Amino acid sequence: MRLWAAKRIASQHGCIVAVSGAVDYVTDGVRVVAVRNGDALLTLVTAAGCALTALIAAFVSAAPADPLLATAHALAVFGLAGQEGLKVAPRPGPGSLRVGLLDMLHLMEQAHSLDEVESFVGISSALLVNMGTLSPEWLASKKLAAKRAVELGIPWVLDPVGCGATAVRTTACLELLRCRPAVVRGNASEVLALAGAVGSGRGV
């Protein structure tokens, strides 16, 4: 079901869709790549999905010619970072894994202000739009950033956090989807909600 939803979104909107789970899938509507690594504890690490989407944006900016393979590589590297993070964790648990995982990943610059978001996009190689915080000003800045990225030909990645959980959040995600992201990365319920499946979202 989640692979069907991912392929439908990719075909309708001309983007790459990555849906995470026990097996991660990446598709452009025709090709499908399955990534099997990582650890089940990653699902218990708060904001792990957001960090993954940031990594995808970095990989797509480095290899824009084939965003599907770039996304698949990002998923594989993230899973490996989780596995390596567990090795350095003092105890096997989500709290320790979080620290170990973050030690394996780079920090990324963030901008939210309407006054500076277009300038930041202009000097970036890629853009990540994360729907985690959804205040009116932040939503406006997300839309502005996405539109500016499209104007400049900069690949951008949408993380539809919580899509399907509320009508406001779902509407906002669908509006951004129409701005033609290069990649969409969500969990199964988020991708199903984007594809129009009723009652699929229960949270983030």
TrEMBL record:
Alphabetic keyword roster: ATP-binding, Kinase, Magnesium, Membrane, Metal-binding, Nucleotide-binding, Thiamine biosynthesis, Transferase, Transmembrane, Transmembrane helix
Annotated GO MF terms: ATP binding; hydroxyethylthiazole kinase activity; magnesium ion binding
Protein's UniProt name: hydroxyethylthiazole kinase
Cofactor: Mg(2+)
Pathway(s) it belongs to: Cofactor biosynthesis; thiamine diphosphate biosynthesis; 4-methyl-5-(2-phosphoethyl)-thiazole from 5-(2-hydroxyethyl)-4-methylthiazole: step 1/1
Enzyme nomenclature, EC number: 2.7.1.50
Residue ranges crossing the lipid bilayer per the database entry: 40-60
